């Protein structure tokens, strides 16, 4: 039995949020606007939680509320990152509202600096699977777009 792949763009209960941009390393990223500031986030379906660089948080901390958390994760380079604070952030992607719960890193992952060196992009954070699911987003690599799926509207 052969499965036919169907584009999610053709569904009536989905809208295009933004094009998928790929950096030179092949990583998908999106540009988010937060209070007239532009932030660059890698979209990582392998990341269980979303994170923001501590350096970026220090610049925005007057505009964000924090809460205590205790989490740690292992980076792709093998290093471990920890977070004792998190924040909820509302921002726009391509003019459309999104929400993210972001763990505030105590140290910047070495991978952020590697990405900056190799691709010339300064990464401000990573949006993980928690961001994608809470915003009903699907990465459609066939059409190179991010789709927002409306679960309340029947296809």
Short description:
15% of the residues lie in helices and 45% in strands. It contains three helices and eleven strands; from the N terminus they run βββββαβββαβαββ. β10 and β11 form a beta hairpin.
Number of helices: 3
Strand order within the widest beta sheet: 3-4-9-5-8-7
Structural class comes to mainly beta
What's the end-to-end separation, in Å?
Answer: 25 Å
Q: What structural keywords apply?
A:
155 residues, mainly beta, 6-stranded mixed β-barrel, 3-stranded antiparallel sheet, 15% helix, globular
What topology does this entry show?
Elements lengths: L13 E6 L1 E2 L5 E7 L2 E7 L6 E3 L1 H7 L5 E9 L5 E14 L2 E9 L5 H10 L5 E3 L1 H6 L2 E4 L4 E5 L6
Parallel strand pairs: 4-9, 5-8
Antiparallel strand pairs: 1-11, 2-3, 3-4, 3-7, 5-9, 6-7, 7-8, 10-11
Q: How is this structure best described in words?
A:
- With 155 residues, the protein is mainly beta.
- The protein is built from three helices and eleven strands, in the order βββββαβββαβαββ.
- The protein has helices at 54-60, 110-119, 129-134, and strands at 14-19, 21-22, 28-34, 37-43, 50-52, 66-74, 80-93, 96-104, 125-127, 137-140, 145-149.
- The strands form two sheets. It has a six-stranded mixed beta barrel with strand order 3-4-9-5-8-7.
- A hairpin with a 2-residue loop joins strand 7 and strand 8 (96-104).
- The longest helix is centred in the C-terminal third of the chain and has 10 residues, at 110-119.
- The protein is globular.
């Amino acid at each position: 039995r052969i499965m036919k792949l169907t584009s999610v763009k053709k569904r009536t209960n989905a809208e295009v949020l933004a094009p998928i941009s790929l950096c030179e390393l092949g990583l998908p990223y999106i540009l988010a606007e937060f209070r007239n500031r532009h932030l660059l986030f890698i979209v990582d379906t392998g990341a269980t939680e979303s994170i923001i660089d501590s350096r970026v948080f220090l610049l925005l901390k007057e505009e964000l509320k924090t809460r205590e958390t205790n989490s740690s994760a292992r980076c792709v380079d093998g290093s471990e990152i920890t977070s004792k604070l998190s924040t909820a952030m509302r921002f726009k992607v391509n003019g459309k509202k999104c929400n993210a719960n972001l763990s505030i890193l105590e140290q910047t992952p070495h991978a952020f600096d590697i990405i900056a060196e190799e691709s010339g992009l300064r990464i401000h954070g990573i949006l993980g699977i928690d961001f994608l699911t809470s915003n009903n987003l699907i990465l459609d690599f066939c059409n190179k777009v991010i789709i927002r799926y409306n679960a309340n509207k029947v296809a």
